[in-house]
Amino acid sequence: MFTGIIRHTGKVVSVNPSGEGKRITVSAPPEFLARLEKGITSIAIDGACHTAETFDTKAFTVYSSFETLARTTIGGLTAGSEVNLELPLTPHSLMDGHIVQGHVDGIGRIEDIEAKGESRCYTFSLPKETAFYLVEKDSISIDGISLTLFNIAGNTFQAAVIPETIANTSLSRKKPGANVNIEVNILAKYAARMNGASPDTAMENKLKNWLAGG
């Protein structure tokens, strides 16, 4: 489990096909790699959870499965790509951000970036089946970054990005049209599941209300 508070970024060194997946080597700061020496092997790469197979003082290597490659932007990484990195929570960690599983729900896209003083306002689009779980002022993970969403309109929403996040993540290097990994708040998915709601049932209920003149 992660928090979406990004303190490190890395650069992809190599991407090598391996069966139906890929082995990806990423260079990372020494202080990040030092944590791996203490037995931590889970790593969120742009918000997608992976397991470190090997590591040294300069880089680590993960295996990305066919499922991860199909559902995330990881499949599009090439040598030189910058990625956000996060290690998992420990019993002694501060619970900043929000609960991020590292299980990406879908791929979204940056539609617009507007400067707001030192901050930036990003407009994102995402698949409608993922947009169903959006809640105004809720938390959302974008490329592993915990952000607060607002101004939901159909399958788009906005998020304000503060200077600290701009300085410490790869998001600042992405332009409109770039794809991003999106993980909605797990609590929203649990609430929908417990109430028997889904994108399909929501549309069905709207149609029934319309036909009934509601």
Task: Give a structural overview.
The protein is of the alpha+beta class and 214 residues long. The chain has six helices and twelve strands. The protein has helices at residues 30-36, 66-71, 128-131, 163-168, 186-194, 199-211, and strands at 8-18, 21-27, 42-45, 48-55, 59-64, 82-86, 106-116, 119-125, 139-142, 145-153, 156-161, 179-184. The strands form two sheets. A six-stranded antiparallel barrel has the order 1-2-5-4-3-6. The mean pLDDT is 90.
SSE order, as H and E?
Answer: EEHEEEHEEEHEEEHEHH
Q: Unreliable segments (pLDDT under 50, ≥5 consecutive)? A: none
Which architecture of the largest domain would the CATH scheme give at its second level? Beta Barrel
Structural class: alpha+beta
Number-wise, the strands total 12
The share of residues in extended strands comes to 35-45%
List the total number of helices: 6
Number of domains: 2
Level of helix content? 10-25%
Shape category: globular
Q: What gap, in angstroms, lies between the N and C termini?
A: 42 Å
Q: Which fold name is given in CATH as the topology of the largest domain? A: Elongation Factor Tu (Ef-tu), domain 3
List the helices and strands and how they pair.
Elements (H helix, E strand, L loop, with lengths): L7 E11 L2 E7 L2 H7 L5 E4 L2 E8 L3 E6 L1 H6 L10 E5 L19 E11 L2 E7 L2 H4 L7 E4 L2 E9 L2 E6 L1 H6 L10 E6 L1 H9 L4 H13 L3
Antiparallel strand pairs: 1-2, 1-6, 2-5, 3-4, 3-6, 4-5, 7-8, 7-12, 8-11, 9-10, 9-12, 10-11
